[in-house]
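Dear colleague,

Following up on yesterday's call, I've attached the two folding results inline so they're easy to grep. Please treat them as preliminary; we haven't cross-checked anything against experimental data yet. The first protein's sequence and structure tokens come first.
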Amino acid sequence: MGTTQLESVPEPKYWHLKTVLTEALDSEFSVGEILPNERDLAARFGVARATLRQALEQLELEGRLQRRRGVGTTVAPPRMGVSVGTEQHVWPGGPGDAWQSVDCTEAAPPAAVADILETGRDEPVHTVRRTRMSHGQPVAAELLYVPSSSVPDLSAIDAPAGAAHARALLRELHRLELEGQDSAVELGSARADDAKELDRLPGAPVLVVTTRYVAGARTAALSVATYRADTCRLTFGDSGGVEIHHPHRHAS
């Protein structure tokens, strides 16, 4: 295919280039395929590498591309639809929960979390770390903060540290009657620890879902879940499940 020149395009070059690249992704590449290097792409489309990078970053933000360490830029699979804000109120760790418990520690939470939990800023709380996988790839990481007052009998449980202790804590949490939950969603940037866990670069776009669980007329637990913005899209409904959406894409 010949070189595509963009000199006469009135809109920002990177934005028009994004459209051209999208058409190329649909017609010439398949999911998981590695794109040519930046030098070759820039030469093909007749643009500076800085313009190309802007277009690639926009496509990554929109979930069409993934940048992976040691691999390069690949065509992303369809985003996974994650249902949030449903009418089903359930504790974490219940039947059908797609999250995997990794660890459980006890330490003072971030100040903003302590304020929501209405605990002292130096008061330790249980912190359960969980991950969510899809097709063998990490798509989300969660920190679930639980005050000791929500699980007063946990200390009597003979459970080792790590994932087993996390599961024991969740079982104790289920003893409470869940009165309600609410969620908030915002766009953020991956911190170093999130990026490492999600196999992303620091600063990559992420979706942060904060969920407050209410029992006994107070916040009994707080979840802060970080989703890969290039992999997931949030859906709102009552199903409470995860749907895989497959838009039409051509194989190369």
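Below is the second protein, in the same order (sequence, then structure):
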Amino acid sequence: MSEIAQLHRMNVGTGFRAYSLRGREKAAPIDPFLGVDHAWMSASTFAPHPHAGFSAVSYLFLDSETGVNNRDSQGMRNLIRPGGLHWTAAGRGIVHEEVPAEIGKTVHMLQIFVNLAVDRQEAEPFALSLEPQDVPVVHFPGVKVRVPLGDFAEVRSPLRPPTEVSLLDISLDEEASLSVPVSAGNSVFIMPIFGKLEIDSQLFDASEPRLPVFPVQATSHEVVLQAKHGNAKAVLFSGSPLRQPVYWHGPIARTSVDALNASIAAYQSGKFGSL
């Protein structure tokens, strides 16, 4: 049985709007994810900002009108193109900025926050990038699945991130269906992106702020997606929970108050670097 998680509408100025999902205490029920924003960005909205203790991941949908210029205090400068993914493992601390490559055009994207195991939270920051043409794609009748993270149907993303998670970008034609196997010990949640679809016989609509979460089970199982009401699109997220405490302060998340305060002090003293 699934739980129902609520999304919250978020608007920042006139250039950023999103449906936002955040985990609760210890990131439950979406652990090892901390949060996901299904976002539309058409202007430079967020000033350069710090991250520490987790990974900030950007995935652009293929229908994005433009890409994202990404830069960080480790010297990374790159363009995230529609269909591509960029993973910033913040570790002990990094300063980061992403802006639309062409102002006035809209980026359609996911901003994903993935927790790091406590023994990785003091590691040196690093980044991983996946170009659109390198994302594995699986086709079934009426179904297309892009696999930017993790594996599905005997294909695997070339990325090996510090937290092992899966992200499946699923497109369904009307009347098509897809069964997705879920490993024992993994949690799953599914974010509708477009249209209406039935997920394990429950109807979800991308225009409504709710989605299903499937807690960890002791045995493997399947989740079934069906597009009975027209074409539909959804993203499936899965991973093994870390079950760590999570203490937030803005864009920094650590496993204790002391570690959080130390990260804030390190950023304020310039130890995260600058752009």
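For the second protein, one point worth flagging: Residues 11 and 143 are 32 Å apart (CA to CA).

Best wishes,
A.L.
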